[in-house]
Design brief:
single chain; 133 residues; Immunoglobulin-like; three-stranded antiparallel beta sheet; 8 strands; elongated
């Protein structure tokens, strides 16, 4: 188990454990929803995070699609610190997949990370809306 926990920590650039820590009790994942805005063609992706995360939240994302469910695998990064209950993830998503277009569906998976342990992933989804002025 120590190897698995340390591998997750290495992936995040965190120090290693000599002995594995006790398995934590996770509170519910605080990520509530994915909201996509399209203001004058400038698209932003934000996750609503109404309560503080446990330690870290890992963000994974699938390539944008027109319809249907996709497997959400690539690790995009750690959830940026929420500001007024919102974490902008545009800077995590766009470098991986490129600029987004109206009508595309976006799937994001988040899971909490405490000392190498991760909880059950939570998947949120939204569609890129038409531009507004």
């Amino acid at each position: 188990m120590k190897v698995s926990l340390n591998t997750r920590r290495t992936d995040l650039g965190l120090p290693q454990f000599d002995l594995p820590p006790a398995e934590p009790v996770f509170s519910p994942n605080p990520v509530a929803e994915l909201v996509i805005t399209n203001t004058g063609g400038r698209i932003t992706l934000q996750l609503r995070v109404p309560s503080p995360p446990a330690q870290y939240i890992l963000v994974q994302g699938a390539a944008p699609v027109r319809t249907g469910v996709r497997c959400v695998q690539p690790f995009l990064g750690l959830l940026p610190a929420p500001i007024d209950g919102w974490s902008e993830i545009t800077g995590l998503y766009v470098p991986q997949y490129g600029e987004l277009k109206f009508g595309q569906a976006i799937w994001i998976r988040t899971c909490q990370h405490i000392d190498g342990w991760i909880d059950v992933p939570k998947v949120v989804r939204a569609r890129v809306p038409a531009p507004t002025a």
